Amino acid sequence: MANWDRKRYEQEKRSFIQRRIHHAPLWGQFTLVFGTVWGAAWLCSWYLLRYIAEAHPWAKSFPTRYAIAFLFAYASFFLAVRIWIEIVKQEPEHQVEQLDVTPSNVAVVDGEGCFIVIVVLLVGFIVSGIFLFIGGAPMLLESAFEAAFAGVIVRRPLSGDFVLGGWKMRLLQSTWKQALIGIVVLVAVAAWLQHQAPQAKTLADALRTMTHDGRKQHVWSNRKLQSQHLNRFE
Q1: Are 76 and 33 a contacting pair, CB within 8 Å?
Q2: How far separated are the first and last CA of the chain, in Å rounded?
Q3: Does residue 58 come out as left (phi exceeding 0), alpha (psi in the -120 to 50 range) or beta?
Q4: What are the domain boundaries of the chain?
Q5: What are the pLDDT digits (tens) for 43-85?
Q6: Which residues on neighbouring strands pair with residue 163, listed in sequence order?
Q7: Which of 61, 70, 204, 208 has the fewest CB atoms within 10 Å distance of its CB?
Q8: Residues contacting 140, CB < 8 A, separation 6+
């Protein structure tokens, strides 16, 4: 079992992170990670609405269903990151081979399934691009570093030794605040949508209802103004 001092620990971590930021195909990797997370949230919400809502009315509630889907997606995020760690802990030149996609190793999907896959990958691509732009890569790479060098003892004479390997705790510490803000905002928006469209079952239904009601309100307002204008001349 290796032993590092604090200086060696910081050097190794910095080297690990910088090499992967500059040489690893992180955008493609994060596209799969965040696409998986978004797909898990969608799948959970769809399952609750299709199979649970009939017997349990609480599943029809936007805030409740989306909160559960968010928590399921957050758990899926940890699983996706753990799988990603197995790729990213290798040297960058070997990671490209891991993500090599050819017609021979991709299942053929058509129709609605193809559309869902495209949407999932598109969402993952956009989210991962934003994530990289705001500098989020080091946060996940620190968790990968913990897993890659699990078992290494870091000697700290003043504050005490610690053993690398707690990637889950590192990831939780790095993301729980963002997750808390995310679920609060999501529940608030879902509650507002439910108030605006009480009969809607899905987000698409709510948006269609709100758009239709908005057009009706606009037409009614125009007719009222026209009536007032005609009455003025009479």
Answers
A1: no
A2: 96
A3: alpha
A4: 3-192, 197-234
A5: 999 999 999 998 999 999 999 999 999 999 999 999 999 999 9
A6: 153
A7: 204
A8: 30, 81, 84, 171, 174
